[in-house]
Model the fold of this input.
Amino acid sequence: MEIPPVVIDRLPLYARALSMLEAREREVVSSQELGTRLDVTPAQIRKDLSYFGRFGKQGRGYNVRKLLDELHRILGLDKQWRMALVGVGKLGRAILDYQGFAPQGFRIVEAFDTDPKRIGEQISNLTVKNVEDLQRVLSQNPVDVGIVAVPAEIAQDIIDALIKCGVRAILNYAPIATRVPPGIQMKRIEPVLALQSMTYYIKNAGRPAASARS
Amino acid sequence: MEIPPVVIDRLPLYARALSMLEAREREVVSSQELGTRLDVTPAQIRKDLSYFGRFGKQGRGYNVRKLLDELHRILGLDKQWRMALVGVGKLGRAILDYQGFAPQGFRIVEAFDTDPKRIGEQISNLTVKNVEDLQRVLSQNPVDVGIVAVPAEIAQDIIDALIKCGVRAILNYAPIATRVPPGIQMKRIEPVLALQSMTYYIKNAGRPAASARS
DNA sequence: ATCTGTGAAGCACTTCACAGCG
DNA sequence: CGCTGTGAAGTGCTTCACAGAT
Done:
């Protein structure tokens, strides 16, 4: 069955909410309650889950632990994922420092750059390697995901190189439209675009006066 | 007229591509070419633009400069936008350091934290202030946008406080579902969720063998 | 000849509403 | 009685296809 991409995008959201409930030792949750927490309609949640099976009990709701396990399995979150970072400028360093990936099973195991000043440098237990060695390094020790944190001008080349090395998913921080062949996943992280669409909605509201508002 | 939100989300993308073309002194571009660069169908681009007016010339295409100006006006990018950052941990510092906001007219003019060790610290020309003074500081000198880079546990409280201070748009880096009242814009930056949905598609492909691939 | 602007058709996603199970 | 699972209805977005402008 072909599952709508938006559904796949919501599953991690559900998984995260369930993790939180599990940490609080909640045993059961209804689509109603989950929906209120996540700002998603209960019908949406039930429909989304129904693409994958029947995980609930009528009259009761969903067993938190069981549903979380199912979602992890469905999303492939029951494995460790190896990632390579390309670009260790300011942004790249912040990504290496970020404590949010590892607890979810995403480990950065290689870091690359083009700048001779950075190559060889030790950051967060990794030695920065030359991008020219990307192919050699990754063919000996493949990774699943590439994280791109290079200037826009070279982002497409880096992405092409990563894909040649067998990377199947790319998390792209470079602010530019890039293309990947079919079958390769890519998601962009674009704070500026996010801001630029929000301004559309707030541009006419007028900044609140310096005095007002409680 | 009510414009589909997805349309608004694409406009900044068009604007960015046009900026690039303008920098290369391109005068005219067709929906066809723009679409190829951005991986959007030409019909989509024409339809999107048609919500706002008639900007093209039949048989020729769009004047790059003129269309870019129109998009800037439509999106409210012809102004400067004042932003306040809350949370100056590792992530917050990286955001303060980020060179991508200012050139697009987005300036971080205040930084707040709860940690006494950080309050008073000078980072990137800003003095970190106490979150308890948020209300006082922002009522004297309002900002348009709040950037939230605090731990998940306090993100909702911070968001509520920002909205009380007249902030109308929020860029949220905290990994948690939060709610905003109607009329307030919020976009989330969630690299982990992005990874967790991509794994669904690649989980069965099998990691390439250590030797293979050219 | 080329490329826009746009109704109409088509497709994808969401919500409804209720049968059926616990 | 409460809540799931799900066809069917409804909504919103995308693509088609072509009239019309240059």
